[in-house]
From TrEMBL:
GO terms for cellular component: cytoplasm. SUPFAM superfamilies: Thioredoxin-like (SSF52833). This is Glutaredoxin domain-containing protein. The lineage of its organism: Eukaryota, Viridiplantae, Streptophyta, Embryophyta, Tracheophyta. PANTHER family: GLUTAREDOXIN (PTHR10168).
Length: 112
């Protein structure tokens, strides 16, 4: 269980792919499975049940997120290459459009 936004920030800066979600959430299980299926090995951080995804994202990157983006983020939150991708819906849309693998390669999460 992560204890602060600093823990998330450090992990996002150190790892090419990070998934932040709630422990018992099935969607927090789907995101890493999709990424693993593409050959990436995401770092998975668990937050408490009362954690607010919009507050987490805004606390980490207040200048990079409009109010609209920050309020639409839901757990799990996915970061690729140190940047916020969004939630599971954004991850799935990128995968279905064939854009996920190139982004993972660019982030250094895939070697091929």
């Amino acid at each position: 269980m992560i204890s602060s936004t600093d823990d998330v920030r450090r992990t996002v800066q150190a790892k090419p792919v990070v998934v932040v979600g709630r422990r018992e959430c099935c969607m927090a299980h789907v995101a890493p499975c999709l990424l693993l299926g593409q050959g990436a090995n995401p770092a998975v951080l668990e937050v408490s049940d009362d954690a607010d995804p919009a507050a987490l994202v805004f606390a980490l990157w207040p200048k990079d997120n409009s109010t609209k983006v920050a309020t639409e983020v839901a757990f799990p939150v996915v970061f690729i290459g140190g940047r916020l991708l969004g939630g599971l819906d954004s991850l799935m849309a990128m995968h279905m459009a064939g854009k996920l693998v190139p982004v993972l390669k660019q982030a250094g999460a895939l070697w091929l």
